[in-house]
Amino acid sequence: MSVEIWTILLVIISFLIYTYIGWRSRVxxxxxFFVAQQGVPAIANGAATAADWMSAASFISMAGLISFLGYDxxxxxxxxxxxxxxxxxxxxxxxxxFGKYTVPDFVGDRYYSNIxxxxxxxxxxxxxxxxxxxxxxxxxxxxxxFLQVPVEVGVIIGMVIVGFxxxxxxxxxxxxxxxxxxxxxxxxxxxxxxxxxWILTGNPIPQVAFTFSDIVQKLNAVQVDLGFQEYTQPFxxxxxxxxxxxxxxxxxxxxxxxxxxxxxxTVPNVRAARYSAGWALLFIALLYTTAPAMAxxxxxxxxxxxxxxxxxxxxQLDWVKKWENTGLLTLEDKNGDExxxxxxxxxxxxxTIDRDIIVLSTPEVAKLAPGVIALVxxxxxxxxxxxxxxxxxxxxxxxxxxxxxxxxxxxASESTRVMVGRVMVGLAIAIAGYFGINPPxxxxxxxxxxxxxxxxxxxxxxxxxxxxxxxxxxxxxxxxVVGLIFTxxxxxxxxxxxxxxxxxxxxxxxxxxxGMFLNFVVTLIVSRLTSPPPLxxxxxxxxxxxxxx
Amino acid sequence: xxxNKRRAYWRANTNLIVNLLIVWGAVSLLLGIFLVIPxxxxxxxxxxxxxxIAQQGSIFVFVALIFIYAIQMDKIDRKYK
Lengths: 549, 81
Hints:
The complex is a heterodimer. Chain A contains 23 helices and 4 strands. By secondary structure, chain A is mainly α. Chain A has a domain of 338 residues: Sodium/glucose cotransporter, CATH 1.20.1730.10. In chain A, helix 3 crosses helix 8. In chain A, 59% of the residues are buried. Chain B is mainly alpha-helical. Chain B is 83% helix and 5% strand. At the A-B interface, helix 5, helix 9, helix 11 and helix 13 of A face helix 1, strand 2 and helix 3 of B.
């Protein structure tokens, strides 16, 4: 069977599984729709959180990014995992104990203010919308590359599938499909990684092969020969300070992303929230410790099979022909010496590789069966759809629960609330799909926003809401506003107005760290200068701090 | 639960959190970034140690820290029940 037939088959089978789970998990009540009846076991929530968190970017692009950045790629590895320690120790158990439905719920109740609630709602919607547009685009790209379907058709198919289980099952439907999606995406990631580790080093475990084989040493030597820095050389692309700030911003941003936080509202009790954070990171670590191994192997293998060979020679490789056709790999013998060469200089470099190729081409490079290549397509779709569905639910609950039920119509009946929730999911899917088909030029640039804004807005006010009884409404609102404004101006200035990164050269991706510190400082100072929170709020904080659920 | 017991429980919890976060910051930010160059003169297997911590070791430590917290909190929960 050809790769195309395999791909169609596997994609259809995986979609049927999601649809079946969605149908089995349909719900009628608001507790089921927004927090899966708080009945998700810790380990299942761990798998769902892992799928929720690992997006199309983690699955398709991250290994490629690392393979071009070498050591400096560690910002993604540490940044996108280290946040779970903060989440597990500082946020998840208390938010579960608080026991309502959303992040703005906590902010609004703890700071006894609908203004604080509204600021949180706006930040949650903004962060989730920028993020979800990229996921729908990812769905379209996987379809177009593996099945030669136009991107638009791919996006619409993805919208219909997500729409089905998210509208019917809400959080419950999303949770159980995410569990299934985790297994598909991790198997799809691990098999090619094991195969390439085995072929290059004779050791099938990527993490072990990465550490104990001589591939990275050989890669270092080759890089130096070609005029690049060593692969393991720190700070080749960014300064130490910048790496430090970006890593912290990604960690704190991860802990502050609403679609990750709400997953911990769905478990039965506080204890389960603690353990499920551990399971989540364990499941994530499977992919995140494999990615750097794959990055180094793939880079070594690409240089080895392309550099200093003749064009005719490399074009005999099937995968070279295929990826040249997509335009993601370009080979050009600029100096006419019949050999193609990789160099750090744009003028003389004859091999251009798109970072997405690293993961997508590995199965072909390793000459795996067509079934495995198809599995990678299904895995990429699982990663994109699972993240998209989690984000869509945050957008829906922000409007249906936080704005409609908590602020406009507190007497709304159960059925009305669920109905509004379903309609909002549908609307959010339509908007996400529109952005997926017509990606605004700024999408790539606003990814930094999602993390920076989550770090500068939610993280400090939630932490202080739990750990500092004295923090009050005035402090929290001022802190969030200052954090948001500072971070937005810096990012917009750099990305759109060519502003120089005046804060010690810290790039837009890392400025959320500064925004977070500003938020902490402003919140603490303003809280001390104004009156303490009312007694019932102080009682609530006391309740959050006592054992038991 | 009385006032004193509640305070003691909270103190036990925050002490545990602080200790684990010190390890968290030391491994990732201190060893993985700040001291990566001196650490790279040592090797682990065939990788420079600092590079290995940044791309592998720190992630293993993060997973361990969360499970240590959950298990220790079970003990503290039982003690102050």
